[in-house]
């Protein structure tokens, strides 16, 4: 089961998130038939999306993270919503590497305009890039330790720990947070040994039993459907849709997030109209 625990610690001055996303990553491996490097990269970004989705407030909240690697290296895109439905894909041409290029984050909390932030990639490590994003784009001191372990084509552990300092955090609590984060240098190994519940018990003094600790359950779930594609075809108009069928023999739409093909024959289009 995927888990995201959220709580306030150290005199309620530090926001803590503990993630276990092993099943989420295995779903992605199965859907996209990922190699080890791609699974680690996409899995790390899916975990990041789960964390950021857990921070959304609005019923219409959504977040997306897109990595555009330098040159023709390809892209990685993940997204999530207020319901912790997480999805993503990785362009095979990037080989699971994030060296060079940019990370762009779009947050839509349902209020006014979506927030867009971007930063240059700091390297191939998801945690390092996410920390740089929070520092450069949101100016929020954030420590991120996210990791993914892959063995024999399967994810054995994924998840990690994220801490953010709230405004006015005292120096002693900053020091506590910094010291505790040292335990998660190899985040995936810690998740594999303890799991999210064990991390809370072993490293945060059983905080899971406290009243204001929240458990959220992320899952890999795409928001596409045949009905949505039908609405897109209807928006084309009957004449244009039939023209595509004549030229291509059918209308075919591929969803990168869930690797699903939606095909519509000429008869299907006629029935829609």
Question: Tags for this entry?
Answer:
single chain; 273 residues; alpha+beta; 5-stranded antiparallel β-sheet; 8 helices; 13 strands; 31% strand; elongated
What does it look like?
With about 270 residues, this protein is of the alpha+beta class. About 35% of the residues lie in helices and about 30% in strands. α1 crosses α2. The longest helix has 18 residues. The protein is elongated. It starts with a strand and ends with a helix. The mean pLDDT is about 90.
In short:
With 273 residues, this protein is α+β, with helices and mostly antiparallel strands.
What is the global morphology?
Answer: elongated
- Helical amount: 25-40%
End-to-end CA span: 43 Å
Strand order of the largest sheet: 7-6-3-4-5-11
Give a count of the beta strands, DSSP E runs of length 2 or more: 13
Strand content: 25-35%
Main beta sheet: 6 strands, mixed
Secondary structure category? alpha+beta
Number of helices: 8
Mean pLDDT across all amino acids: 91
Topology, please?
Blueprint: E1 3-9, E2 14-20, H1 22-32, H2 36-53, E3 62-68, E4 75-81, E5 85-90, E6 102-108, E7 115-120, H3 126-138, E8 142-151, E9 154-165, H4 171-181, H5 187-203, E10 214-216, E11 219-220, H6 226-236, H7 238-248, E12 251-255, E13 260-264, H8 266-272
Helix pairs in contact: 1-2
């Amino acid at each position: 089961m995927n888990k995201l625990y959220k709580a306030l610690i150290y005199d309620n001055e530090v926001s803590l998130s503990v993630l276990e996303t092993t099943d989420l990553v295995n779903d992605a491996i199965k859907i996209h038939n990922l190699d080890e490097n791609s699974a680690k990269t996409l899995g790390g970004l899916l975990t990041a999306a789960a964390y950021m989705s857990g921070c959304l407030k609005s019923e219409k909240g959504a977040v997306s993270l897109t990595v555009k690697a330098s040159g023709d290296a390809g892209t990685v895109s993940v997204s999530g919503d207020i319901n912790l439905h997480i999805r993503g894909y990785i362009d095979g041409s990037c080989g699971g590497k994030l060296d060079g290029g940019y990370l762009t984050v779009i947050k839509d909390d349902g209020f006014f305009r979506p927030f867009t932030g971007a930063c240059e990639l700091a390297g191939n490590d998801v945690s390092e890039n996410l920390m740089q994003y929070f520092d450069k784009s949101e100016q929020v001191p954030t420590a991120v330790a996210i990791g993914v372990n892959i063995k024999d084509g399967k994810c054995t552990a994924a998840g990690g720990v994220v801490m953010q300092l709230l405004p006015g955090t005292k120096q002693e609590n900053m020091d506590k947070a910094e010291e505790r984060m040292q335990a998660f240098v190899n985040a995936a190994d810690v998740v594999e040994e303890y799991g999210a519940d064990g991390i809370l018990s072993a490293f945060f003094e059983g905080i899971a039993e406290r009243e204001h600790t929240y458990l959220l359950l992320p899952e890999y779930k795409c928001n596409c459907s045949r009905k949505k594609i039908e609405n897109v075809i209807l928006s084309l108009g009957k004449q244009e849709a039939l023209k595509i069928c004549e030229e291509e023999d059918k209308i075919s739409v591929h969803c990168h997030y869930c690797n699903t093909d939606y095909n519509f024959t000429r008869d299907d289009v006629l029935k829609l109209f």
